[in-house]
């Protein structure tokens, strides 16, 4: 720096630099203490924002249908379950002939239209198997 | 965390603590950062204290809102905050230009008794006025480099430009400042003055 010496006109470039450096130093040295009012406003904002940010997230209530859906594996599983239920219901109401014949022969059950007695061998199924094997 | 123990805690860690509900961390951050951003806003706004305080509050509010999503290691809090302050100041200057720039040209002066204090105020006022003559980006680069003393790479990050562009802006800004201030060198006492710094 070239302080204290008389400057010529035009001012040499290095003196211009020195002047500017000094002005920057003055600006750097200036302390800018925030006033109490500003700090109060800033902290009020912090408290207001923090009141929401610091709270734990609310527990979400899950509808019972949604929880069942999630339990069995989502919409894909629900679709499969619905299809199987409808198919079972339909087969119960109006079974195909092949199924009816098979069940009739399996349970040794004759048609209800005939006047013959119905033999339900379900309870003696093990015995029946053993007899057939013998 | 006790308030006294926060002096050694980084800005980023304090912000995360605040995001987790620690209000003492917010107080520590506010006390640490507000003087910095207030000073920057003052220089960028030509010494208008009321406007600078509004900018500081607005910038800190944005920081509070950001706290919950802040990820440590991605950016420095000060870099992020300086960018916000710079952008807010540019916005405000544009609005002020459309109303009355003359109102901010002359900063208010108190009643300093010491000659040195008066001279410093006059010099600061002259610097502020000269800074106001620069284009926004030049002024921002000069203030960040020569008053906030940030490194060029950080200024580049704040201004979202390359380091070379920062160097160019600061060089052109300094040249323009010298031209503006040379005319007032006698008035500012730069002929037979003692060094200031």
Quick overview of this protein structure:
With about 130 residues, chain A is mainly alpha-helical.
Task: Describe what you observe in this structure.
The complex is a heterodimer of chains A (134) and B (197). Chain A is mostly helical. Among the domains of chain A are: 63-94, no CATH class; 95-134, no CATH class. Chain A is built from six helices and no strands. Chain B contains nine helices and no strands. Chain B has helices at 11-19, 23-44, 49-66, 77-99, 102-105, 115-132, 136-147, 152-159, 163-182. Chain B is globular, with a radius of gyration of 18 Å.
Key traits:
heterodimer; A: 134 residues; mainly alpha; 6 helices; 0% strand; rod-shaped; disordered N terminus; B: 197 residues; disordered C terminus
What is the helix fraction of residues of chain B, given as a range? 55-70%
Arithmetic mean pLDDT of chain A: 69
Overall pLDDT metric of chain B: 85
Order of helices and strands of chain A: HHHHHH
Count of strand segments of chain B = 0
Outline of chain A: rod-shaped
Rg measurement of chain A, Å: 47 Å
Break the fold down into its secondary structure elements and pairings:
The complex is a heterodimer of chains A (134) and B (197).
Chain A: H1 13-29, H2 36-53, H3 64-72, H4 75-93, H5 97-106, H6 125-133
Chain B: H1 11-19, H2 23-44, H3 49-66, H4 77-99, H5 102-105, H6 115-132, H7 136-147, H8 152-159, H9 163-182
